[in-house]
Amino acid sequence: SRESGYRRSPPRLPKRCREVMFLRQIEGRSQKEIAAELGLSELTVQTHVVQGLRRLRAFFRHHGVAERPRP
Asked: How large is the average pLDDT for residues 27-48?
């Protein structure tokens, strides 16, 4: 059911991807700031964000949680 989808845990992201997603999505840091803090290139940070968002979208889509329309 749709409600049970909300109660399930999202997929566990790899450690570095999880760190990048937290800094970007929760703390609102820029890719440049994250790259400097973690010693990564900005492209690597962007790759982690894209991969993390894809996994989360797939999880929610699979559990029947609708995506917000893009502007």
From this structure: 97
- On whether the CB atoms of residues 21 and 52 are closer than 8 A, the answer is yes
Beta carbons within 8 Å of 4's beta carbon, 6+ residues apart: 63
The span from the CA of 34 to the CA of 12, in Å, is 20
Distances (CA, A) of 9 to 4, 5, 14, 20: 10, 8, 15, 19
What's the chain's length in residues? 71
Q: Is 35 left (phi over 0), alpha (psi -120 to 50) or beta?
A: alpha
**Cα–Cα distance, 7 to 65 (Å, whole number):** 11
pTM above 0.85, yes or no: no
